[in-house]
Amino acid sequence: MNSGQQQLDDVREGDLHFRVPAAPARLTSLRHALAEWAERSGLSREDREALVLASYEAMANSVEHAYAGQLQGVLDLRAVRDPQLGRVVVTVTDYGQWKQPPRNPGTRGRGLPLIRGLTPTAEITTSEQGTTVAMSWPITEPEH
Questions:
Q1: Which regions form coiled coils (predicted)?
Q2: Distance between CA 75 and CA 96 in Å, rounded?
C-alpha cells in the first residue's frame, strides 16, 4: 500500500476497510488490494472480476464527482464476506456532494449503469453527508 493508505482497525478478520484521500493516484493500489481480497471471498471468477470492476468504477466516480471545488476529500472502501447471508458486500463511501451531471454527457455518464450491470444488487444512497454505493454478490464457492 502507498503511504497514507492503510487498512483500518474497525474490521472483522477477513474483511477489508481502507480510508484514503479521494485522489486518482490512490485507486490502483485499492483495486489491487480488493482483487487480492476477492480471491478469498468465495465468489466465482466471473463475480470476482465484476466486483473489482464495479468497485473501481464506484471509487472513480467518488474521486471525480464528490469533491468538486474542494482541495481534498476522503474515500472509504469496505468489503465484507457474510456467509450467514450468503453474500459479499462492497461499499464505497465519500463525504462530499456530487455535482449535477450535464444534460448531455456525451460519451460520459456510463459509470452507474455499468455498476448496476455488473452486480445483482447495487444501491446508491445520497445525503448531505455524502454518497454510498453498496454492491453485493452471492457467495458461490465454499470458504477457503
A1: none
A2: 9
